[in-house]
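FORM 7B: Structural annotation worksheet

SECTION A. Query
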Amino acid sequence: MMILIVGSLGAELFLARFSLLVTLAALVILFLGWSYMRVCSFPWAFLMLMIPIPSIVFNQVTFPLQLLASKVGALVLPWLGVPVLRQGNVIQLPAMALEVAEACSGIRSLLSLVTLAIIYGYMLERRIIVRVVLALASIPIAVAANSSRIIGTGLLVQYWDPDKAEGFFHMFSGWLIFVVSLTLLFLVHKTIDCVWKQKRTSA
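SECTION B. Predicted structure
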């Protein structure tokens, strides 16, 4: 209750929402005991991912991701024959300026992929270390996937039609890149399995 009051008075929705999880944990412990709470610890902790991260943290993470995606795009596109000039998070192409906006930072796809990686590891993997590796691997995968989306958009603008960089193709590329990210996560898991089996066989 105190967390809810403090969060509400401070206009910090993260604390107010987190108070619900604290209340749920307290009720489970009160009526069912600590042993039952230990069994429910993962589902309870997983519910934290449903709470949007605080705005101060969101803003601190989003802008560096925007700069990273724009830097990677400006680095790779010249290798593919596209001259660029980067100014901050804006990539100037011959046909138009490509702005890596907050929505294109990849923070939402990053959070979604990390969440799915945690579910995937918990449901399909018993080894704790492998679960952790899968969750951590989802971060560079999501960052690389978002950068490749920026590169693909630049190629689309340069070699096809600048108007295609917006609308349906822009939205569809987001879905496509996310599916590719899930595939890469699956391949990482299979690679770990193969390496693990080889080590056990050689031992």
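SECTION C. Observations
Strands lie at 85-87, 90-92, 97-99. The mean pLDDT is 80.

SECTION D. Sign-off
Analyst initials: ____
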